[in-house]
Write a structure and sequence with these properties.
Number of strands: 0
Mean pLDDT: 82
Shape: extended
Distance between the termini: 60 Å
Order of helices and strands: HHHH
Low-confidence stretches: none
Strand content: under 5%
Radius of gyration: 22 Å
Number of helices: 4
Number of domains: 1
Length: about 140
């Protein structure tokens, strides 16, 4: 039997099910429920009420956590902030186009950093990555 000194630096992780349950609840609260509300109300009521419902859920989730003195997840805070900004722009312009433009532009901004982007780059720092992907057809 080994001594306690041998295990002092060991990291003990919770079970996989515990991690999935904890993370799954946070993901559902911050993303899946607002998405479901948005889609449901978009189908039956309209775009503006769908935005209001998703925002209301997000702010309600934050309020409940504050009242219970629980920690706020970063996913909930960042998701609510982005949803608020996108909704404000959509309400100000009266257009759903600008609501969906931000995630699309975000994807284009991140794409140059992907492993496949090195093949078409002229940067010498991208050269080590260039052999991993095949060119588009």
């Amino acid at each position: 039997m080994q001594s306690r000194e041998a295990h002092r630096g060991a990291v003990h992780l919770p079970s996989v099910w515990s991690l999935l349950r904890h993370g799954g609840l946070r993901i559902a609260e911050a993303t899946l429920v607002p998405l479901g509300l948005f889609y449901l109300l978009l189908q039956f009521v309209g775009f503006r009420w769908a935005l209001v419902a998703a925002l209301a859920w997000s702010y309600l989730a934050i309020a409940v956590r504050l009242v219970r003195r629980e920690r706020l997840s970063a996913l909930l805070l960042i998701g609510t902030a982005m949803l608020t900004i996108r909704s404000a722009i959509s309400f100000a312009t009266g257009s759903a186009f600008f609501y969906f433009l931000q995630p699309t532009l975000g994807n284009f901004a991140v794409a140059p950093g992907s492993p496949c982007s090195g093949r078409w780059s002229t940067s010498p720092t991208a050269a080590p990555r260039s052999g991993r992907c095949s060119p588009p057809r």
